[in-house]
Amino acid sequence: MQIYLPTNVYSETDCVMNHRKELAALGSRALLVTGKHSSRINGALEDVQKALQEERTSYVVFDEIEENPSIETVIKARTLGVQEQVDFVVGIGGGSPMDAAKAIALMIANPTEIQELLYQKRELPALPLAEIPTTAGTGSEVTPYAILTIHARKTKQSISHKIYPSLALIDSRYLKTASLNTLLDTAVDALAHLIESYLNANANVYNRMYSEKGLSLFAEIKDDLTQCRRQGKEPVLSLSDTVFGSLMQIAAIAGMAIAHTGTSLPHGLSYPVTYEMHVPHGKAVGIFLPGFLACYQNKEEVEMLLKRMGFATVEDFTEYLQELLGKLEIPDHLWDEDVKSMLENQEKLKNYPFPIDQQALYAFRR
């Protein structure tokens, strides 16, 4: 068994300013990687800029990261980073900017390499990296994974390189400007990480401690999330600071869990749905969780997870997710393509502890 987490993690109010010296110590000129809007609205980008300015560390901003970032965007950011002679990278935002920042840090450190490097299994350096999450879903601030969109294949896939951030600065205040759908979708993504890590061929007693703790925390706030959905109000009007803090904790703990196991079949099935139907990642993963649990062969482990989450049966869990996410009808032709693609995805299949075939995957459709 093994446990390994090289990221220095801080989680507190005003985290970026409190640890600005550690942030600035990563280099002398930073590339701040973010999207167009959310990091400006929630104040995270301003906090990072102020922190670096106080430490007299220069920076340049790349704010063109789209939802489900593409290889092409990574290369564009690499060009800017090389031109500006940056020597460290800061990802600010949800999973998209944080994942992109990892790939960008790799490509800047290897400026003569072409984009195919991203999916080649080679040992290469990356620039030092800090991550500041502003959503509570992917846990990318503590994982080595970076998921990019591959337009040529109409899907998403993790790059072949494992790039751990040097520093993660977590502040739940940034969640307060998230929309209702974003907050709930990302919460389900974190929940999927906890479940897929526990029910995983790579699982051991250490990473399962993360999953168990994360699921217990989720049980404490799951009713707050449904109440927020029923009220239809923005989260800041419905949820307490304690719930926001728990959501950030759950996401980071779930990231620590999958850092040691990877994800499993629900994530693999979600990628074509996200690409073809433009469904948010967390929702796309969430629709496969009930089928994953219902079809999982070790029923005792499934019952234990359900109990820890506060559900009596898979049916109760299904109803809960449908209330949070709504229902999603996947066209038959996309289901067929998705199942075929999943059966060819050896990275995900090897994480499932039991043999799986086409008929079993079709049973995931609930």
| Structure class | alpha/beta
Order of helices and strands: EHHEHHEHEHEEEEHHHHHHHHHHHH
Mean pLDDT, as a whole number? 96
What is the C-alpha radius of gyration, as a whole number of Å? 20 Å
Can you give the helix content as a percent range? 40-55%
Q: Biggest β-sheet: count, sense, barrel?
A: 6 strands, parallel
Find the count of extended strands (DSSP E, 2+ residues). Answer: 8
The fraction of residues assigned to DSSP E strands is 5-15%
Low-confidence stretches at least 5 residues in length (pLDDT < 50)?
A: none
Ends apart, CA distance between termini: 35 Å
Enumerate how many helices there are, as a single number: 18
- Outline: globular
Strand order of the largest sheet: 1-8-5-4-2-3
Descriptive account of the structure:
- The protein has 366 residues and is of the alpha/beta class.
- It contains 18 helices and eight strands.
- The chain has a six-stranded parallel sheet with strand order 1-8-5-4-2-3, sandwiched between helices. A two-stranded antiparallel sheet has the order 6-7.
- The longest helix is centred in the middle third of the chain and has 27 residues, at 205-231.
- The model has no long low-confidence stretch (mean pLDDT 96).
